[in-house]
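Structure ticket #2291
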Amino acid sequence: MEILVTTTFTIEGCEIIEYKGLVTGITVRAPTIKQSFLGILKSTIGGSIGSYTKMCEQTRYEAFKNMLKQAHSLGANAIIGIHYDSSDISANTPSTEVFCYGTAVVISKKL
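Resolution: structure written out below.
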């Protein structure tokens, strides 16, 4: 089943039939030794840190997929009001938590 996802709280041309509740996805990632070394080097000389960018994109996607799975298990066909949040786990380890959340709903097309 395809799940429609939006950052807004309404969906044009649809009405919300049922609210299923909060759905979340979370992932924690840490850079590899190679990524850490390249990140330090790039931050020293300047420029985009491609390996970090790729890692961040993968982490966001994993959190998003986890949220979709949860919505699917609740029988929702849409998620409204999605947001992402991230934070460092600790100062001692370079790990980052990415949290994706929204409200799972059942929608139908307006007649």
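Closing remark: The first strand starts at residue 4 and ends at 5.
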